[in-house]
Amino acid sequence: MGAIIRASALFLAGCLVLGGCRRADRADPARERPPASAAASAPPAPSRRDEPPLSRHGEAIALSPDEKTMFVADEEHEALFLVPTAATEPSAVRVVRLPGPPAEVVALPTRVLVTIRSLPTAAARTARDAIRGPVPEASKVAFLPVEQQPPPGDRSAETTKRAELVKRARTRPRNTRPNVFDPSVVRQSEGGLLLVLAADAAAGLVEVARVALPPDAWGLAVTPDEKRALVTSAWSATVSAVDIERARLIASVTTPREPRGVVIAPDGVHAYVSHLVGSGLTELVLGPDTLTAREVPLPAARARAVPGVELAASLGYDLVLSPDAESIYVPRHALGADGIGAWWGAPTVDVLDRASEEPVAPLHRAPVAARVDASYVRASEAWEALPGEAPSPRLDLVQPRAVVYRRATDTLLVASEGDDALTELDALAADPAMAERRSFALGVDYDPFGDFPEHGGGPAGLALSRDEATAFVYCRTTFDVAAVDLRTGDKRYVHLADDGLPADAAYGRRLFASARAPALSGGLGCAACHPEGRDDGFVWSEGDLSQGRPELHFVGSRKNAKMRMNDKDGTPPLALFPRQTPMLAGRMRANGPYGWHGESVDLPARILVGTELHRAPWQPSGADRAAGEDAAKLDYLADYLRSGLLPPPTVAHAPTSVEQRGKAIFESDAARCSRCHVPASEFTDRTALPLPALAERRGFDTEPNPAFKTPSLWFVAGTAPYFHDGSQATLEDLVRTNRDRMGNTSQLSADERAALVAYLRTL
Q1: What's 382's DSSP letter?
Q2: Largest Cα–Cα separation, the chain
Q3: 8 A C-beta contact, residue 101 and residue 78
Q4: 358: closest CA among 25, 636, 6?
Q5: 0.85 surpassed by pTM
Q6: Across 527-541, 711-725, 745-759, which has the greatest mean pLDDT?
Q7: Hey, where are the domains in the chain?
Q8: Is the CATH number 3.90.870.10 carried by domain 653-760?
Q9: Strands annotated E in 392-469
Q10: What is the pLDDT of residues 70-95, one digit of tens each?
């Protein structure tokens, strides 16, 4: 297939805007095979050894080789659910409590493998238990009625459902207090784990082995011989090779930030890793006792890039190989990608040809003409791409989380948390994101006042039946599994557990992931720039892009600023200022102020400002704090940030002599670091102070306001690049070039600078 794609790239490029091209012998979705029947099994028994696993690639959900059981990794409740695929009663369900939050699962014939992000210390365990709420009970699992596709044009059912939802919304619990956690305690970890589980008649699964790994163990893939596994540790920026049979760590390598998805080629030697931050992939070579890594560039969304510009990317949660293993598909967010209405970029599925290590999509050579002015702007539904223009981004692909390849139709299924959608794309198109076949709405029963779903929210994991007729989707913000009949579009849901957070924070969890609430954002959820409350590693452009309004807006890059591009009719020239995305998780306990200039007095005020910043200037205004529904949304989000958005795990350890030396330097009167980065208040004085100007970065304008709020240094080691403009790539660079701009570090020797950096990495 890789050869087909490479030979057809130029032809397919002409089909991008038209939705892609079809291969003549491709199966018609309307004539696909019916789903295989499956009998309930309680408890699940080991599969026969001659039944191969459906996938050796980790996801938040997996099917047993005999397809009788779904294994669902519920990170928030720190549990693994075992749900028979044909069950209709909770008596058949098993809930296995895990030693920490699980991320991904692989179901082999005789073993089930699960990555555990953190093994909490005793103090962290007590704190996490208070946040998480009670362990889910199998007896409370709910099997919901089938959601059938309504007949075209039938509005009666919609009217009835709306009345029911309004009645339900008015009786929801409201105004609950957040359970604010201490990030310095919750973060404490003894490391990550790979758990090896086996079937048990009483418990469903029991642990038979565990392998200690760096903290934040996340992605998982198993070699074709099922003897070894690769595990990505996201916050630790590490990939580890594990001997499954002997339950031992073989080797680990360091990678760029936030390694997430991992796939292993059929040779069992080569593997590839996607990253939550950055556009490149990491190629791994697995030896008998070694693991090596190198970076492989993969520019994002070439068909949407200005000629000569390589776009950055984020949200590389997952990736998948083509059936012939010649191509790699990576759904993610293309930062700054152009197109009609693309103020923030666009969702993309980038395809890498393994043989040439080149993107399959051809370079976009004509100037992108996606430029509009006030007289041209119309309702987004009416916009069309003209010759030479990139089309509007596919909003049902926003914030992609998981992907599988469907061989029967040569299509990709992509689960996107921003739109609560499962979308099918043409895998043979040079740019699959521009060749959508169909989309399935997973979110149901949206609150008419809060814009969050009752079920099907935040799709984050995918499993495909062996006959490829049914997709099983784990929805992480509502704790459901949606089984989608890919022939009819009908959906059935299993609700696994209720959210353990207080009600307002639980609503905030759903809103944080969603790009659907119009009062909060212009088509991009909070989790798009702050995945898991972390950061996308990107420097956005902030400016007054509106027509006569004072509000500022963010855009991915100057080319996304489609209004006020020129000085005409007395309009001042467009000025854009750099704004690096800050980390949120673990930094939200303070009352305020917030914002790079400390301009927002408290957290709700900052979220309110964000509802204007995170939308295009031609879109309707953001939230209105005087409106009850909008004020409630701000409260929900603030509660979630403070009581549910957990910080990344870090290993608790006694400080080394070098780290102790660095701490002494940090707190010394000579260096003066701690005068502004006050340890007692989360390493910030929460004050905006004027600083000497940094060198102006290319593509941005001179800052009119030199006063920047002292940022918190919590988790600073994992949030590169640094400063508001992202001009320093590493902590070493920051300390080396700082001299006396912030505090006094010019007198430090090389060893003292190294000690200071070592201490900063412990924060």
Answers
A1: G
A2: 77
A3: yes
A4: 6
A5: yes
A6: 527-541
A7: 653-760
A8: no
A9: 400-406, 411-416, 421-426, 436-441, 444-446, 453-455, 459-464
A10: 999 999 999 999 999 988 899 899 99
